[in-house]
Amino acid sequence: MDLMLELVFGYRGRDCRNNVHYLNDGADIIYHTASVGILFNVATGSQSFYQEHTDDILCLTINQHPKFTNLVATGQVGDSADMSATAPCIHVWDAMNKQTVSVLRCYHSKGVCSVSFSATGKLLLSVGLDPEHTITIWKWQEGAKIASKPGHNQRIFVAEFRPDSDTQFVSVGVKHVRFWTLAGRALLSKKGQTSSIEDARMQTMLSVAFGANNLTFTGTISGDVCVWKEHILNRIVAKAHNGPVFAMYTTLRDGLIVTGGKERPSKEGGAVKLWDQDLRRCRAFRLETGQITDCVRSVCRGKGKILVGTRNAEIIEVGEKNAACNILINGHMDGPIWGLATHPSRDVFLSAAEDGTVRLWDIADK
Question: Rounded to an integer, what distance in angstroms lies between the CA atom of residue 253 and that of residue 231?
């Protein structure tokens, strides 16, 4: 008899970003923990799993094009010295039937930290954890690599296609923002220029979102959001958050931007904010988790709801109208788990982990 995976407690939020997404008009959410991709039905709390990865998943994105509905790409940790089974790779798979559509074996040694589909859904962009932080563009259906280039000598956290483009994307990282164009098989890029604004210096950039008319927004480690026109710094939204702006999300239908950062909950402030297209007005949402500081790692927006993943391994739905919070998932925020004990007669168990907590779990209640 084979054991069947039925339920996974936990979500990897501590070192990932923008890795929780809605599917099926918000009926399902997709995320990952350990080496497992998880489809979670919000109404029933039931889970189903994609289990083809051989090591921890580090990044996840969904294909927004209607032709490729419910297609997910995930990138994993790996060791490229061994180009066999443990080589870092990207899997493109169907979230509903869990079938693998494509496996992209890459030379991103150490692993893949960011994936993004293009506007038509046909191209996939990946960023590696290798020393050159290589950026690669794939025709994922054919499993073919179109273009590849060293990205930066320090960490790149995210690279994302412009939502209306198959050729333009932006990468952000340690003291880095670059505006890229795919031209045939060549990758051309321009560094973001800060000199247009007095005393502005290149900060470490953690997240990226997009506006109309070739505007780009980047979230910084200091809590500012930079607004770029083409590759030139246009203005700075100072202290959009009190702490680092770890996550941003562009909503295509109304152009609003969601930001997620590190913030102490206060009367007027919250770790999740919804901004207008010009990043001038915003509404702040508090997460009501009881944490002294909320730290958001992933944001995404569905119909009337904002989906949030936190560093503390919670996944939370926030209602836009009433600002009500619904905690869907929680887990240990730092591994490894050192203690595990089942109850002798009841369907509960205890876990103890490096995050300094002991937690009591109810199996029936999930």
Answer: 25
For residue range 238-257, what is the model confidence (pLDDT) as tens digits?
999 999 999 999 998 899 99
Q: What sign does the CA torsion over 281, 298, 225, 168 have?
A: negative
Mode of pairing for the β-strands spanning 110-117 and 71-78:
antiparallel
pTM (two decimals)? 0.94
Dump the DSSP string for 267-308: SS--SEEEE-TTS--EEEE---S--SSEEEEEEEE-SSEEEE
Inter-residue contact 353 to 336 (CB < 8 Å) = yes
- Each residue's pLDDT tens digit, 252-295: 889 999 999 999 888 878 999 999 998 989 999 999 888 889 99
Q: Which burial class, exposed, middle or buried, applies to 198 when counting CB atoms under 10 A from its CB (0-12, 13-18, 19+)?
A: exposed
Half-sphere exposure of 95 (CA within 13 A, CB side): 28
Mean pLDDT of the chain: 93
Please tell me the distance from the alpha carbon of residue 354 to that of residue 336, in angstroms, as a whole number.
6
Give the model's pLDDT for residue 82: 56
Q: Is-contact 246 295, C-beta < 8 A?
A: yes
Question: For the segment 149-166, what is each residue's pLDDT rounded down to a tens digit?
Answer: 999 999 999 999 999 999
Do residues 333 and 14 touch, judged by C-beta distance below 8 A?
A: yes
CB 212 within 8 A of CB 263: no
In this structure, what token pair is assigned to residue 343?
């109850």
DSSP conformation letters of 302-355:
-SSEEEEEETTS-EEEEETTT--EEEEE---SS--EEEEEE-SSSSEEEEEETT
pLDDT at 85: 54
